[in-house]
Design goal:
CATH class of chain B: Mainly Alpha
Distance between the termini of chain B: 60 Å
Low-confidence stretches of chain B: none
CATH architecture of chain B: Orthogonal Bundle
Mean pLDDT of chain A: 86
Radius of gyration of chain B: 25 Å
Order of helices and strands of chain A: HHHHHHHHH
CATH class of chain A: Mainly Alpha
Low-confidence stretches of chain A: none
Structural class of chain A: mainly alpha
Helix content of chain B: 55-70%
Number of helices of chain A: 9
Strand content of chain A: under 5%
Strand order of the largest sheet of chain B: 1-2
Distance between the termini of chain A: 41 Å
Radius of gyration of chain A: 22 Å
Mean pLDDT of chain B: 83
Number of domains of chain B: 1
Shape of chain A: globular
Number of strands of chain B: 2
CATH architecture of chain A: Orthogonal Bundle
CATH superfamily of chain B: MetI-like
Oligomer: heterodimer
Largest sheet of chain B: 2 strands, antiparallel
Structural class of chain B: mainly alpha
Shape of chain B: flat
CATH topology of chain B: MetI-like fold
Amino acid sequence: MSCIETIADYAFRSIGYGERLLPRSDFTLCQQFTLIGSGMLWNIYFGTVALIAGFFLAVTVALGKASHNPLLRKPAEWFIFVFRGSPLFIQFFFAYFLFLSLKSEWAFFDPFTSAWLGAAIVLFLNTAGYSGEIFYGALQSVPRGDTEAADAYGFSGWKKFRKITFPTMLRLAWPAYTNEAIFLFHATTLVFVSSFPGSQQRGDALYYASYFADKTFNPFVPYPILAGYFILLTLTVIGLFGMINRRLNRHLPADRRSKVKYRPQQVLR
Amino acid sequence: MFSFCTDPDTLETARWLACYLTTGKHLNLYYAVGTVLLLLAVTAPAALIFGFGGAVMARSRIAPLRWLGTGYISVVRGVPDIAFFLFFVIALDQAFEWIRHQVKCPDWPDPIRQGNDFVVCAEAKLPLSNSAQFWHEAYGFSLAVLTFAIVFGAFAANVLYGAMRAVPRAQLETAEAYGMTPRQSFRRILVPQMWVYALPGLSNLWMVLIKATPLLFLLGVEDIVYWARELGGTKTPQFTDYPHGDWRMWYFLALLIFYLAFTRVSEIVLDRIMARLTHGQATAAGEAQRRARPA
């Protein structure tokens, strides 16, 4: 079987199209590249969905935590504390079994026990917790001069937030937020090794990599392939976020622009 | 456990719970908590040693060593940690068996990799097939510790590398001016001063390490996740004196709370240590501390 055929058979295997049977013996490099790459679709899906949805919740949570009203502040603080203070792995398990017991009560929760929805919700809440803390920190370090100038120009309320506070907050938070995005994509590999079941052998990149490692008893091929894919994904994320960063900083003189540096701290979960 | 536990069917709720939570299997869960603490106690210093080695290599003047150091730091950081955990557990196991195979059975005729199998001679197996159950578990656990140390060593190396660069240049130049060799100035000037710069990163790493401990489950160790799944599952009266429905949700809620408490306590302790260490230091935090105090 040529490599083109393999790609045609397995490129979308992870989402249920193409050849049903996974290769069982005589694994070729091409099969490993194709299937692990196919699994990456799930990682990209989870990461993107959680990141986009999480962004809005994170801004809300950050504003809540910065609020003077304890009715807004306390829930935001607890939200951040719970999602940053506990392992994502345990959050996955808890959420899965929670959805499982809800499902036995109401049929509405049926789709929640499958990975595409349930795990996406957990990742969404989790990244909202982490990015909420990042945005909160940025909100605290918005220069006083900026808001005072806004006051002097007669900006207030929503307009002041929309035109002054929010863009500056975003600009200050962006390098750390880039980092968070990278580690969110890494964290998506936890989905199928935690409780969420992969039906009909559809899984993410790590699922297929460990499938090959188990079958061939040789970890030295599939895991480096997985690593290569993830390094590509990381570089893509850095590139995209760097573009947004340049746009956020475009009004500043070159020496005051904040660079996106890939310095992972804080965000591994 | 308790004397009143002989007939669980007759007990009221509080006593039933007291009996239920002290069954032999639950004691295994509590031992597993001990395993987590043991893992942390062993891994933290081991990762620090790996990290120190990595940071020193990344600063080395010899180019291949430097590449090795920076490569170690950036590869482990760029790839999901779970992938590394799953990789190293098999890779280390095979590496150890391969080395033992080379030493113990030098005249073995067959290749080690036969198609999809990895075959070493019986004497090279780790642990030996006739050794006690304890050794199998201990071997699995030490593989896990080594894996954790390698992965977290890279993160620690990153932190320590940054900390070494944060020590003011003038300090090292002064040491040179006093005629210290590079080795001396490294030992006497750089290393003692870098810790205060490293501490925020290291305490962050400690939190990350705590949160990574449930991943032991993936490395085949019977840890708290394993027992929570085991104990929480539906139990019918045929097999146990304490039948119950699917309680896994509650078990994982308990684990969640356990980890929240653990990270919270660590955070408070680490903040105290940081406050003490920055006291009187010529850093931004030390300056802020000095200003906060009324004159």
